[in-house]
From TrEMBL:
Superkingdom per UniProt: Bacteria
Domain RNA polymerase sigma-70 region: 36-100
Protein name per Swiss-Prot or TrEMBL: RNA polymerase sigma factor
Sorted UniProt keywords: Sigma factor, Transcription, Transcription regulation
Domain RNA polymerase sigma factor 70 region 4 type: 135-184
SUPFAM superfamilies noted in UniProt: Sigma2 domain of RNA polymerase sigma factors, Sigma3 and sigma4 domains of RNA polymerase sigma factors
Taxonomic placement: Bacteria, Bacillati, Actinomycetota, Actinomycetes, Kitasatosporales
Entry-linked InterPro entries: RNA_pol_sigma-70-like (IPR039425), RNA_pol_sigma-70_dom (IPR014284), RNA_pol_sigma70_r2 (IPR007627), RNA_pol_sigma70_r4_t2 (IPR013249), RNA_pol_sigma_r2 (IPR013325), RNA_pol_sigma_r3/r4-like (IPR013324), WH-like_DNA-bd_sf (IPR036388)
Signal peptide bounds: none
Family named by the database record: Belongs to the sigma-70 factor family. ECF subfamily.
Amino acid sequence: MGQRGEPRRVQAYDGELGAAVARAQDGDEAAFAVAYRLVQPGLLGYVRGLVGEDAEDVAADAWLEIARDLRRFKGDGAGFRGWTATIARHRALDHLRRQKVRPRPTALDQDVVDLPGPHTTHDQVLENLSTRTALALVSALPRDQAEAVLLRVVVGLDGPSAARVLGKRPGAVRTATYRGLKRLARRLGTDGVTDDGPRTLGEST
């Protein structure tokens, strides 16, 4: 993660994304395609962490709403990522309510995360999250921790933006992210602590 908790890759894209969104709001279809290309990998990874194998259908529904309401959006590239994550989260929760099932543990795509090298225990966890096997562990975290980690690491939102998506205070999101990363550190063996038994997304501690 970068200094403020965002993957550097996502930060680098925000200027391009903001410009593309502005052009798309003026009716430029090619610019909308650029915005989609920049946002979709992280957004799909986040939705997959919530709904499992139905992620592509849910993400498609989210993009229909995003396209419909695009002219109402106000903000920059980082703001657009937060706005789209909020829409996707609502569609995912609607889907889960319709299905009346808990989110299923699934492996997230390896290419949705691009992280810098390790420096601390938590940096080592984030580095290890670039593997398919380790990403599957995120879905087994308590729900608040899983969503916080997915929004911060996969979507690339900063703390306040993630808090707005989740409707929580930034401090609560920071705590959930820390606890989630700490739990992942134990499961990945980066701090030598043995974790307790597996949990499913939706459980809380």
